[in-house]
Amino acid sequence: MARYNNSRKTWQYTEEFKAKAVQLSLLENVQVKEVAETLDIHPFMLSRWRKEYREGKIVTDKRKKITSIAQDKKELDRVKKLENENARLRQENDLLKKWQRFLAEEHQNDLDSSKDTQ
Fold it and tell me: pLDDT tens across 53-78, in order?
């Protein structure tokens, strides 16, 4: 197990350091634990940095990933449209179930009335 020499002090790592650590850990045949031990950081910290890297919070070229507002709005509109369609289909499904129950009751009533007349 690695000896974390700086366990009592909170270190502030630069974005470049984090990005390079993540890039090293993404190489083939390299384990997160090995990179963390080499850099004298906790493996959990490196895993967290990897997650932040995937989310775009840590970038290699000092530029934040900017998502287009138009693209976000387009995606939100698409989700809203799908939610509305889902609600409509649920209502249609419920209506069909009620209609099926109604027809079954009518059929049962017809059978009951035909038994009474015999």
Answer: 888 888 776 555 555 566 767 887 88
Assign domain 1-63 to a CATH class. Answer: mainly alpha
pLDDT tens-place string over residues 8-40: 566 788 888 898 889 888 888 888 888 888 888
Contact 58, 47 (CB under 8 A): no
- The domain limits of the chain are 1-63, 67-118
Q: Which of 10, 80, 74, 84 is nearest to 45 (CA)?
A: 10
Structure tokens at 77: 């509109």
Only one residue has tokens 């939610």, namely 83
